[in-house]
Structures are given as structure tokens and as C-alpha cells.
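At this stage, I put together one protein's amino acid sequence and its C-alpha cells, which the following lines show:
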Amino acid sequence: MKYIDVDGIGRVSKIGLGTWQFGSREWGYGDDYAAGAARDIVARALALGVTLFDTAEIYGFGKSERILGEALGEARAEVAVASKIFPVAPFPAVVKQRARASAQRLQVDRIPLYQIHQPNPLIPDSVIMPGMRELLDAGMIGAAGVSNYSLARWRKADSALGRPVISNQVHFSLAHPAALDDLVPFAERANRLVIAYSPLAQGLLGGKYGIENRPGGVRAMNTLFATENLKRVEPLLQILREVAADLGAEPAQVALAWLIALPGTVAIPGASSVQQLEFNVAAADIELSEKAHDALTAAARAFHPVPARRVLTSAARDKIGLG
């Protein structure tokens, strides 16, 4: 495993574990998964050196936090547990109350990383961040972070907090590389952390899906799996396959290795089984050559998916016979 030391948080594994699915029925895992596989996954993650475990109060309305807290056991005080507040009425007293509730569900006295789940379009960070500052001053959280913030809003959050907002958790992968333009360079310059969620683009970067083999369930709604986008992504997938073949790895592992090779960047893939967790963690041992990394970056930048609105409009027209 590779690690990065982060102020206020400690030693953060470059491959973490996202736990959205622990409490969210839309992934189809349910109570049996939560009571069995989720605990096994966390135990194996700890054994493999994973220290970053990401959750949120909204995942299963607190259920993910409870499952994670129980599964971590005595190790919960030794790892970088990260949670998020959904910013509805995020006034200081509310922020503090919600942090206490998350800490209780996680069974910790201090949340190493506490994040604003997404920018509130109506309430500025000058309202939100004083509550986070009070949590920091009281030692209830180790560091404040944000999620889904633009660079401009990340900087505004910094100013509002009066100290560094240490991390920004964003949608980031070879199929969604926008963070390369500004967030990653900022993180490198300012000693911050970019946390990549959906680092495998819901399985697209595994290379197994295509026009004749589309995913079902939640993934079926992802417009990346629309016909035109599956055609457009093929050059990127082909380079992934070639690099993976040269390294004796799998395309998804190479996609993770590409991410964590970037400065100040970690990834938090989910896992539906212990085997999938082990598969993801093994990506930390892959060393990409500069040539391979550059080729993947160029292919990522060259991939321009059809916007969701065009995909949906086209599907609607086809459905009514106007395509």
C-alpha cells in the first residue's frame, strides 16, 4: 500500500474504501450484505493496510456510518474515517449537532475528516464554515473538507474557514478527468488532498462493458453506457487494455494506478466483496511508466462523452419513433 500524510488526518492510504453501498438499497445489497459481507470487507481492508474509510450521514440515512463504525471495531480510532454533512440549513449549531450524531453512529470521539457533501447553491460558505471551525477548535474533527466543489468555491471555503480546507472529494477518473485542469495542480501546490470518487466510472473502466453487454441496475441510468458514449470511449479502453497487458494487470487496476500516481490524489472505490476489495488494493502496487501514464492522460483528455441531455433527448426521440 502507498500512503500520504495529511495534516490533521494522519496517514491516508492511496486506495481507500468508499462505503456508499453499505447502507444504500439502490445497489441491491440489502441487509444480508450489511450484516455479513460489509464487515468482512472492512476487516480485510484493515489487514491490507487501508486507512481511509469514507462514508456520509446521507448514505442509508446514517446506516452506512453505523455499519462502518461497528465493522471497524477497536481500529476505528486508528484510521482516517471520513464522513460528510449534507448542507441543508448548515448553520453553526446544526453543523455541530450533525457532527455529533455522525460521531455517535461511527462510535468515535473525533472524526478525522469531516466534509461538506456538496456546495449549497443558496447558502455561502461564510455561513457554513464557522460551524466547521468550531468543530476543529473543540477537537471534534481533525480536518475540514469539501466535496463536489469547484476550485473557486474551494478557495472561498478556505477564506471562510480561516485555515486550510484540507480536501475536496470529487468525481474523478480517466473517464471524468476534469480535476486534472485545476484541482490536482492546486492540491500539489497547496499541500491539499483530492479524493476521487467513482474512480472506475461505475465499472466502465474495467473494459468488460460494450454495446452488446450493458450493465443493469443503477448503472443502467449512467449515460456513459449510452451507445454513442460506448463508441467514443473505446480508444481509451484500448489503451487501458494495452497497458494492463504489458503489466500483467487488469484495466480497472491500471485506471486506479493512474489516479493515485497523481500528486495529492487518493481513490475511494467501493467493493461488493472481499475479492473486489483485494483487486482494488492490488492497484497500489502497480508502477506505471511515465510513458504509460502520459498515454492514459492523453486518451482521457481526448474522450468527450455526449452530454446527458443529448443522450436523454435522443432516447426519447427513439422511443416515440422520431429518431
